[in-house]
Amino acid sequence: MDPEFLRSSGWTPREADGFSATIAPYWYRGRGENLEIGFNVKEEHCNGRATLHGGALMTFADIGLGSAASAALGHARCVTAQLQAYFVSAARVGDFITCRPEVVRRTSHMVFVRGLIKVGEKTIASGDGIWKVLGGEPEDER
Fold it and tell me: What is the dihedral of CA 118, 122, 124, 130, to 10 degrees?
């Protein structure tokens, strides 16, 4: 999807670093329960069948659902403890993938999040995961 169209529709781009940069920029719109995250599928994200590679979709699920976990913690540091994705349809080059994550529960040490991943109105995957709150101690990061 055209970046200018996305901007005019209220989306804001964000770059990433490390491995997450492989499918960046990510696009963000809204906050809290209305938070949406998106990305444009490019040829380098696809497998030999010209469809979005499952690993790229898992990376997006981790970023999309993890963004909600981080926001629920006031952007405190957290890491993915568990992530599941269920693939139900394909995405192709040029598709704009979105996720609207939902925080299901938060405890003092964990955040539980789920969401649907879509192309337009078509669900291509669903996911759920658990994020562990880091307490700042070095052993918490192992």
Answer: 40
User: Got the DSSP string for 78-137?
Assistant: EEEEEEEEEE-S--BTT-EEEEEEEEEEE-SSEEEEEEEEEETTEEEEEEEEEEEEP-S-
Any idea what the CATH number is for the domain that residue 69 is in? 3.10.129.10
Name the one residue in this structure whose structure tokens are 């052993």.
Answer: 139
Tell me the three state secondary structure of residue 107. Answer: coil
Domain count, the chain: 1
Domain span at residue 22 reads 3-141
Q: Which of 65, 104, 109 is nearest to 86 (CA)?
A: 65
Position 140 scores a pLDDT of 47
Q: Please tell me the predicted confidence (pLDDT) of residue 137.
A: 55
CA dihedral 12, 22, 138, 75 (to 10 degrees): 10
Look at residue 123 in the predicted model and tell me its pLDDT: 98
Give the position of tokens 């994550």.
Answer: 101
